[in-house]
Description:
Elements (H helix, E strand, L loop, with lengths): L1 E15 L5 E21 L3 E6 L11 H12 L6 E7 L10 H16 L6 H11 L3 H6 L2 E6 L3 E4 L7 E6 L6 H8 L10 H10 L2 H6 L4 H6 L2 H12 L4 E4 L6 E5 L2 H10 L5 E5 L8
Parallel strand pairs: 3-4
Antiparallel strand pairs: 1-2, 2-4, 2-5, 5-6, 7-9, 7-10, 8-9
Helix pairs in contact: 1-2, 1-3, 2-3
Amino acid sequence: MKAYGKINLTLDILGKREDGYHLLDTVMQTVSIWDELEIQHSHQPGVHLQCSRESLPTDTRNTAFRAAKFFLEDRGLENQGVYIFIRKYIPSRSGMGGGSADAAAVLRGLNEMFSAGLSAQQMMAIGARVGADVPFCVAGGAARCTGIGADVGPAPVMPDCWLVVCKPPTGMSTPRAYSLLDKYPLSSTQATPRMLEALATGNLRRVSRCVANRFDETIRLAPVRVLKRTMIESGALGAMMTGSGSGVYGIFETEQQAKNAVRRLDGQGRTFLVRPFREKLA
């Protein structure tokens, strides 16, 4: 299975619930960078997981592990065993949803492997128990996500373009990013409605002008500022941090411009040349 990453075209913070979860309004877009998952039956009951990135946990702290566990419980298959191997390519702490993508791929894979016949909505409901971004990663394509991020609604797909994504050495955990964000006011001008209008026009330049991220506006990581400036100087129509960081994407009209930016970013972090993934995954 391929577990596709995402970028946030916008990310507004609208409030905070009593349980501590923040209320979001964000437009997410699947992109063509992915982890690879091998999922097999196992003679030993339960979930058995291994990962190419040794620093990642392989127990209930892992989103893919929890997704498999919840799927088996939901389908009454606790006596069954599954083995999962994750080959990681999406960088950690990049804001590209690698863990959520892995969990979503597990749900799609197990649904197929056990011929469970779950609809996308049913898989998304299980995914919401794992993490707020998992429902979007189950569906893929483009979507407006609200609530804590798990309520997935329609959005026009991003116009065809080239994207350069760079993850600097500096990382940012999601809990740390939210704790820093709480020191600042909530989003005053909301970017998501403007982005939806821009996407509906199919005009790449207008879309690029509407990218926004409340984390980027408030936390203002120095490496992120440098990456954005380098991308704009390389011809990007727009550049923005994705998620809670610290990955940065630039939007380019042509492949050549994007490749030139990749060369200029050499040594500043892990860099990827990707495109918007326009099809739904489930």
